[in-house]
Fold this sequence. Notes:
With 235 residues, the chain is of the alpha/beta class.
Amino acid sequence: MKPVAIFRHIPTEGAGxxxxxxxxxxxxxxxxxxxxxxxxxxxxxxxxxxxxxxGTMSVNDDLPWILFVLPxxxxxxxxxxxxxxxxxxxxLISKALGGVVDKNPVKEIGWGKVEVSDNDIAREWFGDIRSxxxxxxxxxxxxxxxxxxxxxxxxxxxxxxxxxxxxLALQCHVEMTGNMxxxxxxxxxxxxxxxxxSPAVQSALEMHDQSQxxxxxxxxxxxxxxxxxxxxxxx
Length: 235
């Protein structure tokens, strides 16, 4: 089986729980460290799937690697290679497929409830799950590309997830681990302080206090989504 390519854009936003999931299912994967200057592949067909993680930059920033990633995403879409995006990764997929990425009405940071859309495709992806508490850390949001089916929303961000066939884009973070939350809170101290008055931003203490109870639920949701995504992988 060809490996799954996982794109890391900053050191603290790696594959997280998704890597654990792939290892548990004996799925080979490779990490492409954009933050360390790894070249962006030109041919999506070298991989069984492409997965894009998060990052503190915007997809609208003038960054050289974005000019290579967007065509790669379009190449994967054209050849039916499954795409999976987490936060920035979902925004990259959206922009590549004709969507618009712009500022969200408020920053959304910490644990927050998301609702599963009431449609048959959402039920295929989420099974019996109707809502859950996900982790969030974003200030921008995406529009849905042509042909996308809406999957998730929250009180502060309407477009939390969508699918197009075997491709999945998630604004929220289902890949979190306890260590990642700690690292993000430490790296994002100033952002948390600057955003403390936002109704959708938790303090680091609130995030840590809720993690023990909410991470197991989040991993159950991640397992459900990742299992469904695996069905589309090329062998």
